Amino acid sequence: MSGTSNLLELQDIHAYYGNIRALKGVSLQVTRGEIVTLIGSNGAGKTTTLRTVLGIVRPLRGTVSFGGRRIDRVPTHRIARLGIAQSPEGRRIFAPMTVLENLELGAFARVDHDGIARDLEHVLTLFPRLRDRLQQKGGTLSGGEQQMLAMGRALMARPEMLLLDEPSMGLSPILVEAIFDIIQNINRLGTTILLVEQNARMALRVAHRGYVIQTGRIVLHDTGAALLRSDVVRKVYLGEK
Amino acid sequence: MTDRGGLRSLPAALLVTALLAYPFVDRALQAQTVHAVTDAMIYVLLALGLNIVVGYAGLLDLGYAAFFAIGAYTMGLLNSPVLGSPLYGHAWSFWVIIWIAALVSAGLGVVIGAPTLRVRGDYLAIITLAFGEIIPVAIRNLGDITIDIGGWRPVERLNLTGGENGVNPVGRPQLPGVNFDTDFIPWYFLILAIGAGSLWAMSRMRDSRLGRAWMAIREDETAADCTGVNPVKTKLLAFGLGASFAGFAGSFYAAKLQAITPGAFEFNVSIMLLCMVVLGGMGSLRGVILGGMLITLFDRILLAQMTSLIRSVGRSVGIPALISVDLTLWRWFFFGLGLVVIMLIRPEGLAGRRLRPPAADVDEGEEDLALVAAPPRPRAEAIPRWLRQPPASAAVVNSHPILEVRGLTRRFGGLLAVSEVDLVIPPRGIVGLIGPNGAGKTTFFNLVTGLLRPDRGEIRLGGESLIGLRPHAIVGRGVARTFQSIRLFQNMTVLDNVRVGGHCRLHASVAGAVLRPPAVVAEESRARERALEMLAFVGLDGRGEELAKNLAYGDQRRLEIARALASEPRLLLLDEPTAGMNPRETDTLTELIGLLREEIGLAVLLIEHHMEVVMATSDRITVLDYGTRIAEGPPAEIRRNPKVIEAYLGKGYEEELVSG
């Protein structure tokens, strides 16, 4: 692609998830510095899209580019080193390791020790609950705390781009608010964000742009504010009667 | 069904004809393979028995050959004239001993299993490995026993097992008009009959309440326990029944060979059997038969034939290196290579259920945007009739609250996870349990469902204490739950997941599962019907034959609720049921909870972070923070409680309330 400012670009992606044809020609772009959200129902292909970006699912057809470079055939661990981190759905943390070790692992690919120490402090300020539990084993945290740990670990990689898969799931209302503030903060500090959320209202509020995905196809695409006003989105994804 | 049955009966008839005609064809061709094939069938029978333990129940057993040894030595001890044992001279009939051998093996399976079943995975494998080593050593050392008590020797130089030399001869079966002495064909038909009978029994067990319980344990032991399956009993049954088939195989083996030595039951036999199961496909009867046949016949026939072929080629060409080749020395090399190749190209085994089913390309076309994402709304008429009857778990309806928790306390190290919590749910009550992340809500659930034991406090269900009961027993009393991180039996079908939910309301025993008397047939068809009704009620009709893991997230949540309801509970504990659901699915679930209370009087304890759900459904709400109760009351009070707003709801929630 020519010198666009697109950091991440998906072009006509077709992919299977298990035996289901989960993506049927998904195209989307995320510009450097943006928060872009992908909303849709369960099974629409949101998580498969993220997995395709990370190289966990390989597309049958189509291309994924990051910073102008094709990454759809690059191994997952190398994609991580290119500057994409994820905070996964289902809280995949390292259960037998302590909270601190989990966070340090997030910075595994980094060598700037001062930066790592600063970012650790930053993460613990964002999630004070994790500071209380630094020496506890990850597996003994409650579900919501594991969610915070997963997010903190992703931040520790100081990624250029952060993929967030349902960051608000299982969090108390007060933390749901906090987490979207945190997402905006991280973004202001320079991280580009692709956000997948069931909480479409909050996601569209913080996002610059949004895509609506349905049974593997992008069906709507607009600014976050415009999508919030869209009748269809309000009815289907915001649950308004 | 009848069409498929007709189509399927043709290959089956061909197979039976081939099996019956084979030894006579072999004789006519003078191929002399019956002997080897009969031996192969012994190992197939062993592999099938091991499949119950490893394939169905998911318990890695590395010492299964020990049960083979026990079966063989039971035959040897009871049916040989040479031993110096007290049993000498009582050469019993083969036809009696073979059953005794199965019983002895099964008994030992249970005895050995009992202490080992508290452990799982690697630990269980190590313990069974040790057991597999102990048995041959014990047999070697029991050939010469002397007990000396201060010069008095009640037992002197007793030969119980024949020691290193083994037992020789072992008596043959006697049957009028059948020659078991010099002819291999009767042996072939005998093992064919034993094998066919075993296969019949196994397939019926697999398709019963028992088989489903084994697979549930394999998939997720904790979830199975919380669904009403007694894990200890279920695993012991797998060990005992698995061992009993080794008893049959062992006693047949001893009688056919007429001699047994401890060397025939070493570790490598256990490993070879495990290879057969893995190669064929764990949990697949057809696959295990295929795997067993391939490995033994490869060993006994192919390697030997190839060796002689290469040698004759070597002789005719005149290459000395080829003449001295012995491929049978390489058998473990070939086994290993074959297994590696199979695992790389078909990790599920030759006939196992495919891990990656062929891609189905169902293109739904362009849907109307507004129509998708709306799960079917729950309807009162769709509530299964049987759920409306007073639940089987309900004892006498009395004035006690459904759930009464007093002073519940549980500590993890220095952390008070739950501290002096009181909570009461009246009949037909719906109570919300909310609080910040890490406040102890799920720990509270785990205490009520018996996964954790409280340090202090009382938990009563309808007036009866639940303290000290195991989770499956608590399900039996009428408490069902779902999990925050969905815990379905992933590799079982949707229908079977729900049927496991009804496990504790079914009664078929092992004998019932195999013999299928009318009562069991009726029970099974009722269980199936009820499960289908339940799936229709939660909006999963027509999805019964899919694997649970292939369902979309929201569907998995609904399936977990269906599974919980199938145990006919009086109290349902839901742990964040709408996590990961979109607003429409959330609405549907809210309606479903209300409907269950109105229509069948189900009481619900609900952990949930979606306030619209909690506020809409709950009569009262209890708020936990740092393990203690900070507030309790009706929703309208709770949402205005400053403590709750500060710790949990946040100011934004208040604002949203005001703005509507």
Task: Please give the radius of gyration of chain B in angstroms.
Answer: 31 Å
Most extensive interface, chain pair and sizes: A-B, 46 and 49 residues
Structural class estimated from helices and strands of chain A: alpha/beta
Sheet of most strands of chain A: 6 strands, mixed
Our Rg estimate of chain A from Cα atoms comes to 17 Å
Order of H and E elements of chain A: EEEHEEHEHHHHEHEHEEHH
- Number-wise, the strands of chain A total 10
The rounded distance between the terminal residues' Cα atoms of chain B is 56 Å
Could you explain how this protein is built, in words?
- With 241 residues, chain A is α/β, with parallel strands linked by helices.
- Chain A is 38% helix and 27% strand.
- Chain A contains ten helices and ten strands.
- A six-stranded mixed beta sheet of chain A has the order 6-7-8-3-9-10, sandwiched between helices. A four-stranded antiparallel beta sheet of chain A has the order 2-1-4-5, covered by helices on one side.
- In chain A, helix 3 packs parallel to helix 6.
- Chain A is globular and about 45 Å long.
- In chain B, the strands form three sheets. Chain B has a six-stranded mixed beta sheet with strand order 8-9-10-5-11-12, sandwiched between helices. A four-stranded antiparallel beta sheet of chain B has the order 4-3-6-7, covered by helices on one side.
- In chain B, strand 3 and strand 4 form a beta hairpin.
- The two termini of chain B are 56 Å apart.
- The N terminus of chain B is likely disordered.
- The radius of gyration of chain B is 31 Å and the shape is elongated.
- In chain B, helix 1 packs antiparallel against helix 6 and helix 7 packs across helix 9.
- Chain B has 660 residues and is α/β, with parallel strands linked by helices.
- In chain B, 53% of the residues lie in helices and 11% in strands.
- At the A-B interface, strand 2, helix 6, helix 7 and helix 10 of A face helix 20, helix 21 and helix 24 of B.
